[in-house]
Amino acid sequence: MTDAPTPAVTSDAGEEPIPVEPDYLHAERGVLSWLLTKDHKRIAIMYYAAIVLSLILGGIFALVIRLELLTPERTIIDATTYNRMFTLHGVTMVWLFLLPGIPSIFGNFILPIQLGARDLAFPRLNLMSWYLFVIGACLLLGGMIAGGADTGWTFYVPYSSLTPTAVTPIGIGIFILGFSSITTAVNFVATTHLLRTRGLGWFQMPLFVWALYATSLIILLATPVLGLVLILVAVDHSLHFGIFDPKYGGDPVLFQHLFWFYSHPAVYIMILPAMGIISETVSTFSRRRPFSYNAIAYASLGIAFIGFLTWGHHMFVAGMSEWTAGVFGILSMFVGIFSAIKVFTWTGTLHRGSIRFTTPMVFFFSWLFLFVFGGMTGIAIATQSLDVHWHDTYFIVAHFHYIMVGGALTAFLGGAHYWFPKMFGRLYNERVGLASATGVFLGFVLTFTPQFLLGNAGMPRRYYSYPPEFQWLNVLSTGGAVLLAGALLLTLINLLVALKWGERAGANPWGSRSYEWQTPSPPPTHNFPTSPTFSRGPYDYDLTEEEARERIA
Amino acid sequence: MNELLRRLLFLPPQASTLAADVDGLHYFVIITTMLGATAVGVAGLYFSLKYRRRRRPLIAHVPQGPTPSGAKLEIAIVVGLFSLFVLWWVIGFRQYLALRIAPEDAIPVYVTAKQWMWKFAYPDGGHSVATLYVPVGRPVKVILTSRDVVHSFYVPAFRVKQDAVPGRYTTAWFEVKQPGAYPIFCAEYCGNSHSTMRGEVVALSPEDWARWVNASFPEVRRPRAPVNIEPGSVDLFDPREPTSMAREGARLAGEHGCLRCHSVDGTPYIGPTWAGLWNARVPLADGTEITADVAYLTESIAEPARRQHKGFALVMPSYAGRIPPGDVSAILEYIRSLSRAPATPPAPEPVAPIDFRPPASPAEEPRP
Questions:
Q1: How many C-beta neighbours within 10 Å does residue B230 have?
Q2: Which of A1, A221, A401, B173 is close enough to A119 for a disulfide, judged by CB 3.0 to 4.6 Å?
Q3: Would you tell me which residues 304-333 of chain B have a C-beta closer than 8 angstroms to some C-beta of chain A?
Q4: Contacts of B52 in chain A (CB under 8 A)
């Protein structure tokens, strides 16, 4: 960021009468210019490549699981492989896709531009976080391939310390990934505090920035606890401290408390950035100011705060006292309230808008339905007597996939389409986009709705074989998974084709008023030609085009 | 109505006294949830049709921002929702207390979970594996613990679930309404054969229960040897038939779960078969060979990973400290007795000459 102006710019300025700064993709050439870049946009693209690869891997693991569950007994793999598969699927999706996905790709790319900054506050730290991510991911996947791990992504002790599989390299990998998250979060917080451009107050910031800010706070406060737990497990395992291992007087339930103290807030690390994308999409395509900006901004912070006080609802049947369980139950309900405020605000934003039915909007509507349904089932399982029956069954699996896939993945795809012209300067095929978005919705509903019923019927999760009466619901679910995989593949192909052959988009194809669209697409290395002054809000659709343009200088 | 909704939602029969109440709340919550999600979805679609962009793509809109009535509506919806959530919580918490706190007169049954089976010990000293016998119409309190990892005792038909945690006792209770058999699942992932860790609760009518308690129930035998579960039946050691070390070993191999993975008839399963294993040459994962003698077999029980049999996945946990040395001796004696067992095809190794020396008592394993 403090580098001298790139040579390309000066030579351009010398040769051409009108200086045209090349966009960030063409500013420099060569592999090294990518691997050593400090440009937040290029780092975001490198994250994009790594994370999409992880998503594809995680998806393949999921398909193997679903295919195996076609029949009650062995279909394609044995029990050992199956147990490793669901562990691989969970670990890959959680740590390599859901947690870093939206912040590291879209946050990295969009947040500095939305703040009118030239880059993040600590560009080198940003590059380091990418390398940490890659090292962590390699350790994780390497450990999985070399030794496998069959503990599930929750690594409950004492099973995880008794299993002969390779838990250690995976633990180290997760530890390193934690540092990658933390460095990104530090960067976002510092940038939001320090690098807002002239005229940009806290309550003129786009809502995506608010969502990322709240997410970063959670990452900073929760991730160290995960690191701590991993160190305690290692110490317990090698030196027999007797913290978790009952053989030496430890308590396995303490591990669950500490694990969920991180992993429940982690759910909000996954979903809050998704909510940020939704806020941006709905305003842009309905040309409306958010129904209540403050409500969304404060609800983000509210979720970040209350998310730390609800972890116990994962342990209603683990042997905690009735009173404790009751407290965790009522606290969990508050998350529902904050989410409901947001949902109401998004729906209200549509009211009296001028709505364009584009691919990101199809993802928005899927999101709205799936998130509300998934969120409401979340309130249902926070109701303790019901959770006793549902805990650790497919009902839980269906619920968190409604939030993780229906929420985070759908918003991720919405963001991928919405910001595609911004990131690459081209347009994807709209018809294929609409078809794939609809396919994702239908495939998703068909995959996970039967799983609610399986959970009701009493099928526990992580079951390799199951009683035959559960079969036809499992077959339905697998059919849905195949449809979902097809639709996702179509999405990928559509975007890859557009990357090369897509129509040129122009700076602002959606006519959005948000700040990131007020600069060329793709943006030049330093985002804005000169450091801009924002003298209007990001959702001022009541201004005329001319006024809106004039107030960004 | 109850029956219709129960079937629509794929819920199992309501076999316990509390199940119907829990399901009542279930219907209330799920129907509200579905209505809520549908209402939001329909509102969104209605707006998107009514306010779809008709004319030139870029027109400015007035007014912007929330209308006062909109803000009031938002507050009303939030307050309404919160009241609804609190109502669910109040009902759910009361039911949770009812599910958790057993009546005073409940019959206690001690449940020990281990990879991958359930053992039940009754107050009168009887015990059973995988099948829990209970009377109809009387509350039964299960007192759970685990010998190895966390398991979870789950009977869908009773709407009851409780983790079995090593080093702790947890409790759950139920009262069955109708005689019948109700499946038990392990709901907390516990290793390779987690999904086969099932069992059933057999609820007996008062007459059958009385007969079972008096050990006259035809299918149930009372224990003849000490059972390695507490508290239960230790006092009832009363051998009625001559026993031998190998026979004791066979029983212990079942108790400790060895036979879940090792066959005794020559068929390879999750682990190597025990038939003909004694003193046979065994290929190791690192390419070398070793004689499966007392030392190797003892080591393999304690530390399976150190010198692993080729061709088998490393799924066996360490049993160091979890099988007492005396039991290890008995199990080894049982393996020895199988050295002459006909190794049915595919016979992996020729049966090695039998070593008639008395088995050396296995050394105390170094604790890891």
A1: 11
A2: A1
A3: 304-305, 313-318, 321
A4: 354-357
Question: CB A385 to CB B93 under 8 A?
Answer: yes
Question: Can you list the domains of chain A with their CATH numbers?
Answer: 37-508+535-546 (1.20.210.10)
CATH 1.10.760.10 domain extents, chain B: 245-340
For A156, name the nearest residue in chain B, comparing CA atoms only: B150
* Ranges in chain B annotated CATH 2.60.40.420: 107-235
A21 min Cα distance to partner chain B (Å): 29
Angle among Cα B151, B154, B160 to the nearest 5 degrees reads 130
Q: What is the pLDDT along chain A (553 residues), one digit of tens a residue?
A: 334 444 444 444 444 445 567 889 888 888 898 999 999 999 999 999 999 999 999 999 999 999 999 999 999 999 989 999 999 999 999 999 999 999 999 999 999 999 999 999 999 999 999 999 999 999 988 888 887 888 889 988 888 888 777 788 888 999 999 999 999 999 999 999 999 999 899 999 999 999 999 999 999 999 999 999 988 888 887 788 888 988 888 889 999 999 999 999 999 999 999 999 999 999 999 888 888 888 899 999 999 999 999 999 999 999 888 999 999 999 999 898 999 999 999 998 888 888 888 999 999 999 999 999 999 999 999 999 999 999 999 999 999 999 998 899 999 999 999 999 999 999 999 999 999 999 999 999 999 999 999 999 999 999 999 999 999 999 999 999 999 999 999 999 999 999 999 999 888 999 899 999 999 989 999 898 888 999 899 998 888 888 888 888 8
Sheet holding B117-121, edge to edge: B127-129, B117-121, B107-114, B140-146, B170-174
Q: How far is B240 from chain A (nearest CA, A)?
A: 35
Residue B47's SS3 state is helix
Q: CB atoms < 10 A from the CB of A352, how many? A: 17
Residues 150-169 of B with CB under 8 A from A: 150, 152, 154, 156-157, 159-163, 165-168
For A160, nearest residue in chain B (alpha carbons) = B149
Instruction: Tell me which of A203, A322, A386 to substitute to probe the interface with B (most B C-beta atoms closer than 10 Å).
Output: A386
Q: What is the CA radius of gyration of chain B?
A: 29
Q: Which fold would CATH assign to domain B107-235? A: Immunoglobulin-like (2.60.40)
CB B347 within 8 A of CB B266: yes
DSSP code, position A63 = H
CATH match for B245-340 among 1.10.760.10, 3.40.190.10, 3.30.1330.60, 3.90.180.10? 1.10.760.10
Dihedral sign from CA coordinates of B254, B258, B259, B260? positive
B72 in contact with A, Cβ within 8 Å: no
The sign of the dihedral angle between the CA atoms of B108, B113, B118, B119 is negative
Q: Do A333 and B85 touch, CB atoms closer than 8 A? A: yes
* Closest partner CB to B41 (pick from A326, A369, A463): A369
pTM for the model: 0.82
The reply to whether residue A352 touches residue B165, judged by beta carbons under 8 angstroms, is no
**Cβ-defined contact of A333 to B71 (cutoff 8 Å):** no
CB A526 within 8 A of CB A38: no
State the nearest Cα–Cα gap between B323 and chain A, in angstroms: 13
Q: Give yes or no for a cis peptide into B346 (omega within 30° of 0).
A: yes
Give phi and psi for A195, each to the nearest 5: -110, 15
Say whether residue B48 is in contact with chain A using an 8 A CB cutoff.
Answer: yes
Angle B271-B274-B279 (CA atoms, 0-180°, nearest 5)? 115
A473 interaction partners in chain B (CB closer than 8 Å): 10
Chain A nearest C-alpha distance from B286 (Å) = 15
